[in-house]
Amino acid sequence: MSAITIQKRPLASTSASTDLSRTSHRRRTLRGNVVRVVRERYLREDIACGVAGCPVSSCKNAIKLRLAAEKIPATGTRNGSIANGTQAFVCIIDSNVALGQMDLLESMLGNLPGKTPAALTFSSIVVPQTVLEEVRHRSLPLYNRLSALLDAPESSWVRFWNEAASATATVRQPGETPNDHADRAIRSVAEYYRSHLEQRKAPLEAVLLTDDRDNMTKARAAGLISLNGHFNASQYNVLEGSVRSDALGQAILIRGREAMNRAIDGDIVAVRLLPESQWLTETDEVKGGSGGNDDAGSDEEDDEAREEQLREEEQEDQEERQALARQERRARSSGGKPQPTGKVVGVVRRNWRSYVCTLDARTLPPSAFSSTGATSLLALPVSSRIPRIRIRTRQVSSLIDQKVLVALDDWRISSRYPDGHFVRALGRTESNEAEQESLLLEHDVPYRPFSTAVLDCLPSEGDSWKVSPKEQAGPAWRDRVDLRAEQICSIDPPGCQDIDDALHAKILPNGNVEAGVHIADVSYFVRSETPMDSEAASRGTTVYLVDKRIDMLPHLLGTNLCSLRPHVERLAFSAIWELNPKTADIVSVRFHKSVIASKEAFTYEEAQLRKDDPRKKDAITQSIRLLNDLAIKLKGKRMQAGALNLASPEVRIHLDSAESTAPIDVEQKEMRETNSLVEEFMLLANIYTHFTSPIRRYADVLTHRQLAAAIAYEPLPANLQNKGHVEKVLNNVNKRHRGAQQAGRASVEYWVGLSIARKNQEAGGSAKSFGTGEIKLHEDAFVIRTFRNGIAVFVSAYGLEGLITFDKDCDFDGEQYTVRVPATVSGLKQDLILGIFDRVRVEIGTEKDKNTQRSRVKMALL
């Protein structure tokens, strides 16, 4: 009789992380005891992915044995084709999406009003077993609704048994919470589908859809690429944009309307990176917007007019497709280095606002001006980065020559343009009042009056406030150094009232030089977490226009109590250096709060004349000379260390009077040694951050508070210890700073345009007859960018950039950034080869911009 051998399964490790064949959890019994429940789990190799015709053997066997259904169309859509050549996606959802977005999920099975089927975006939704179990545990009604979606006859949704599949099964790790374990299990499903679908030639790609920021972060760390960022539309080409993704570390090129997917400049979008074989180079062609009718007109238009609009729209689409194909062919044959290229697959957050527009009269039939009914027409935004907006109004006749404010409402997936509505009229086009207000609105510059709550934060003494006598030891003197006897002065542009900084220098007994930079102590008046602080954080910066200034702080502070005016005592934050006078090496440095009394307020010209006057031997003049000698040495050391001087010409516009609407002259600002003097010491004080302009930059206010905490003057405010709060504030500050710069440049361009028109008229010519010899204003310009059909130039005499376009395409060398302009195109005697930084001669006039409806500067080659 043979012996009976009892074979036992080897004792498994006590660590659950090493045993996928069983699961365990703990539960409390009725008696209150906690017991461990262990269940055996059988893992299978035949759990199918659900994609029709999947070549992987495990999936083929599962379908053959009828263990799974082919619910995901192999080509991405049920009719076997992919709409407009777009990519189809298999979307894996997590528990947060199932629990919080059920209405959205249900809507994706059918058509929404005004929208196309969601299958054009996602070919299928995969619901992992982990998600089903968590939803059932937390909400039975939601679980029933989710099950109904999975079991619907026409559904292409897949129930994936990830806990039973050997490729995706997971075990809870020691110290891992149930929620973290569930998230990890879902990520393993996403990774499985990603690698699984890579083996297929069909255009399917796996996407993990999650509402959980931590889950997204861990998914990225696990290698699941997630790309998103702000969409930036090109200012030169309406068919091109870019998205800069922190995850990729560089900009992703977006080419074509379909790839843009209804994204508008400033939106935060999710992007799918195309395979490297489909990457393109940046376009070498200027492409403006088209001017077709689209779907505009009154409700009473006849069918013939509507058919004409449809024909024009189809023609526009055809022209854009041809332009896009031409650009892509050139990009591929140019030999340039391809740039990461992608497509917008979703808008994460709309950053829409109200836009300044003019009404496009070309989209209106003659009957619209006398019609009393609502009329549909297109509004042209002032910014070329924003698409035209369709609005309906009964006020066509009164608004056709007005600047108007239009708000965006929606952008239907079936529409060429977004829908919006009329908000208010700003005034007649080319009137100074309307142009100035539209400029502020277009660049999102807040110009509302300060609220009562903000004004209540000001000192009750108003203009009469002053630093209390030192003998009284008031709160203003706490831990401050008395520097009132120092020979301190300020050096600023003419007319400056918000004086942020002042300087001094003197020779010490040991032969070294003491130099000081004294910055207005704004943080003394603007306390953290007050209405004034919130308003300053919202405004971010002071905005300087040609004829006005939009202050970050109320006038009382900016131009009086904080301003370091001469002959009055003011509170300051000082940086004091001891330097070697021969080498400008720093011996020591200290920071402290102070009380100063500036002796003089000079302009750059006045300080230069004083420094150069050999008869001047007074202490303040000697201080300026010491500062200048040190500044020359400091700049020399910076340049020797590899610093790059990016100084750009600035212009000053002279008006007839403060109330004048006509500029009489434009001149380039002269740079003197004293300009460099102030610049060097501001750089020395800043070095790593902003510090020197707290009256006009909120970032500097934050730095003052941090520095005060660093020198133990006062504790750091609680909100500055919150990284999320600081990031939010600084994102807004950066946005306001860009807007302020753009508004300032636009203001200069507007006034320079008026001056150019006036100068051409005074010279007996016309500002609009290009190529006829009537343009009398000629200037040198520098090429700053080249295209196949144009060049961008910079005219330093006016501080202006201009775009010169050619009627025909020219030979473009993308490697050398040069363009050959035939004589037949330029109208000159011989061909021209133009490259970056080449000097050219241009005629400068003005023309009426179709978007802004105001005169703008136009240039042409001579």
UniProtKB/TrEMBL annotation:
One of its GO terms (molecular function) is endonuclease activity. Its main location: nucleus. Residues 480-713 form the RNB domain. This is Ribosomal RNA-processing protein 44. It comes from the Eukaryota. GO terms for cellular component: cytoplasmic exosome (RNase complex); nuclear exosome (RNase complex). One of its GO terms (biological process) is rRNA processing. InterPro entries: Dis3_CSD2, NA-bd_OB-fold, PIN-like_dom_sf, PIN_dom, RNase_II/R, RNR_Ribonuclease, Rrp44_CSD1, RRP44_S1. Residues 320-331 have a biased composition (Basic and acidic residues). It is found in: Nucleus. Residues 296-319 have a biased composition (Acidic residues). Residues 89-217 form the PIN domain. Pfam families: OB_Dis3 (PF17849), PIN_4 (PF13638), RNB (PF00773), Rrp44_CSD1 (PF17216), Rrp44_S1 (PF17215). It comes from Ceraceosorus bombacis. Belongs to the RNR ribonuclease family. Residues 1-25, 281-344 are annotated as: Disordered. Keywords: Exonuclease, Exosome, Hydrolase, Nuclease, Nucleus, RNA-binding, rRNA processing.
